[in-house]
Amino acid sequence: MFIKNFFTVLLILFSQLTFSASQDVSISWTPPTTRADGTALSTSDLAGYEIYYTTDVAMPAIPDATNTGLVSVSPGSMTTKVITLSLAPRTTAYKIYFAMSAIDTAGRKSALSNLVVATLSVPISVPGAPLNLKVAITCASNNCTVTIQ
User: Fold this and answer.
1) What is the number of other CB atoms lying within 10 angstroms of the CB of residue 118?
2) Which CATH number do you get for residue 47?
3) What is d(CA 108, CA 41) in angstroms, rounded to the nearest whole number?
């Protein structure tokens, strides 16, 4: 009974630990050159971008920091951003969906870009099993002692 309880306690302790791993995702895009109405848009008219990400294939119609992950990107000639996500290990791969919008200097946001998906694996890494477990049982006067060595 002692051995069973000992391993039950160990299993409970391990099941309550949380692990995470960082995964980098590189996002790249082509800056818009026209506005939605077809008029020209210069790079100096762009204030930046917002990149949204979620594990739900149904990206919200109006994404924000309350219903998706959000990364703001400063203006300039930047057309690539590396996003680091902290993901818990699990047996199946994550599918992370990304979309973005451009923001002009007046603060107006574009419609969302096309939706893209990244598949990320964070394998579960558990400790190896203990080796050479030994048990000694000593009995005297109807009283037995179990010792794990």
Assistant:
1) 17
2) 2.60.40.10
3) 13
Q: Answer yes or no: pTM beyond 0.70.
A: no
**Greatest Cα-to-Cα distance within the chain, rounded to the nearest angstrom:** 97
Tell me the pLDDT tens digit for each residue of 121-149: 877 777 778 888 787 888 888 788 877 76
Domain presence at residue 5 = no
pLDDT tens digits, 27-81: 888 889 999 999 999 888 989 888 898 888 777 777 877 778 888 887 655 688 8
Q: What is the helix, strand, coil percentage profile of the chain, to 5?
A: 10, 40, 50
Residue range of the domain that includes 71: 20-32+42-125
The two structure tokens encoding residue 136: 């000694």
The whole-angstrom distance between residue 82's C-alpha and the CA centroid of its chain comes to 13
Computed on alpha carbons and rounded to an integer, the radius of gyration of the chain in Å comes to 27
Residues belonging to the chain: 149
* Neighbouring residues of 134: CB distance < 8 A, sequence distance ≥ 6: 148, 149
Distance of CA 30 to the CA centre of its chain: 25
Four-residue CA torsion sign, 3, 5, 6, 11: positive
